[in-house]
Amino acid sequence: MSPPRGGTPTTPYTTYPGATSADSLFPNGWNPGNWFAPNLQPTQNPLGKSNRVVYAPRLRHTWLVGGQSDRQMQSHDTDFSLPFSFPDFLISNQPLFVIPSFSLHLWQGPSNNPPELPSKAYSFFVDSSWFSDPNRVVGLELGVRTGFFSDFQTFNSQSFRILGQGLVRLRVTPQTTIKAGAVYLDRLDLKLLPAAGLFWEPDDQARFDLFFPKPKISQYWTSIGDYDLWWYMAGEYGGGSWTVERIAMPPVTDNEYSDQIDVNDVRLILGMEWGSEPELRLRRRRGFLEVGWVTGREVLYRKDPSESFKMNDTLMIRAGILR
Hints:
By secondary structure, the chain is mostly beta strands. The protein has one domain (32-321): Lipocalin (Beta Barrel), CATH 2.40.128. Helices cover 2% and strands 54% of the residues. It has one helix at residues 277-281, and strands at residues 58-64, 74-81, 84-86, 96-108, 120-131, 138-150, 160-173, 176-184, 192-203, 206-212, 216-224, 227-247, 256-275, 287-301, 309-310, 314-321.
């Protein structure tokens, strides 16, 4: 297997291109015998500093395969976003990213199950994220999502939701970073989720993101034309929460009423991603294709939790174009 373009055995490789090896607790690695060895030369950011404000649109589609079962549901999720950035935000030398996004969720099933689901729902939100200088030993990673999540038939205080993430970053060696914090999901039965893990890049052909709740292990595969291809294994906590309009079941009169539902699941993923070598070194990609197994599926209702139900495991197929 040949190394990705731009990488040679003599080129120092760090988790954050542009940092010197001294920008970590142990600049020469874990071995105490090497702590006093000469420092490596800095690796420059291969893309350089960018003052770009508007980026190309992103498109992603996720299909959860369904069947003719009272414990099965098929779904199609189409996500569209248009990223913006504000370079050197508040004189931090780092950009603030703002990403308006729109998602269409189409649901079919489960059959013969009284707690009905609407045929569709929508998510309209804005993601904002800011990372402190990644070349420092200690840093912060902050993100906030605000938006409306509804079937557009119901709008109430639960339709507008604020989600977020806050992480503290500690760069231990040039190849190793530790992160810890929390993710605020604002689901019916899961509000706050701890987040922590280890990010390790032993060389320019492998990455180990041993991070909960979204682990990922990636490996360089091959190069085609101007693009490098990587394969990966990953996991994530999927689903979401929406306000929907429902119809009261007998013996109650046929009045419509508002409710909130959670669709929760856990996804185990095998995928392939591609992009230029400099982009992939900065964890940016042009596109991806994934297959996965979805387990732990459930639908929860706010007003009558007894109507909540679980669904069978299923197959996921997902693809996206990000630039």
